[in-house]
Amino acid sequence: MTFDQILTFVTVYRLGSISKAAEKLYLPQPTVSHRIKQLERELGKPLLIRAHGIIRLSEEGSAFLPYALNALAALDQGREAVDHLKQGLTGKLSFGCVNSFASIILPPILDSFSKAYPNIALQVLCCTTQEQIKMIKNKHFQFGITRYTANDPAITFRLLHSHPVYAIVSEEHPYAGRASLKLQDVLKEQLILYEPESMFRKKIDLTFNDLNLHYNAQYETNNLQLIKHWIKSTLGIFLSFPLYMQAEIESGEMFAIPIEQNPFPLNQLFLMYREEELNSVDYLFLRHFQKAMEPYHPVDQDDHDST
């Protein structure tokens, strides 16, 4: 039983004619008749009686009619609710986010959200994981987007994206186009890295120390745009994951090369929140956000509660 069959049945009943119903629905008459026959076949009883050019309800049709009308009315109400939500929903959406994600990936997601829900005000605060946790607990906002988890039982962390570290190089670099690189190949080149105080840099340093390897950190910064400039200038290799270089990689300006026997921890992106604090606007954005992240190969896993 389909919506089209129910709509066709109700339209024929209201107009009392197959031809008029076909005209109303912009359908050929055989299509209208076929839909009615399919519906009657599924129900096992005739719904309409055709005699002397007049169409009237059978006993079974009279019994089915109120349910058909209710079904159509419920769908109309659903459409109205969606239209009202898109056009009239008001409120304020506030959340935290790490700088790198906010500057590269978040803008188009916010643009599409604002287009769908123009009456919702937006506030995005860029800060560290620990700062976001404090602000969630102080109810400045209900959720945040971060690259790291924390040992805090009050906060839930949901993994959104996970990817191994790649060697990112410019299109002019001698390694561009290589299918993969050995770690020894990477160490022959100058490295572009985040500043030593960053969490990601500490993970890189720890990995090299565990392997008793030394590297040449020629360029260091906490600014992603400057990192991109150095990569494009063919000044070295940037160890990271491709998410933040997606546009440049797709355009061919940069190459993301897998590292053989990759020793580095996965790069990850998490949603952090307190379930009981989320409101309807938060849930609305989170559904929109997760759908928008699908092209970036999000990871579908169970919630990771920090303990």
From TrEMBL:
**InterPro entries (UniProt xref):** HTH-type_LysR_regulators, LysR_HTH_N, LysR_subst-bd, WH-like_DNA-bd_sf, WH_DNA-bd_sf
Q: Which domain of life is it from?
A: Bacteria
Query: Keywords on this record?
Result: DNA-binding, Transcription, Transcription regulation
Domain HTH lysR-type, which positions?
A: 1-58
CDD domains for the chain: PBP2_LTTR_substrate
- Pfam families registered for this protein in UniProt: HTH_1, LysR_substrate
Q: Which PANTHER family does UniProt cross-reference here?
A: HTH-TYPE TRANSCRIPTIONAL REGULATOR YBHD, NITROGEN ASSIMILATION TRANSCRIPTIONAL ACTIVATOR-RELATED
Q: Which protein family is named in the record?
A: Belongs to the LysR transcriptional regulatory family.
Q: What is this protein called?
A: LysR family transcriptional regulator
- Protein's organism: Paenibacillus radicis
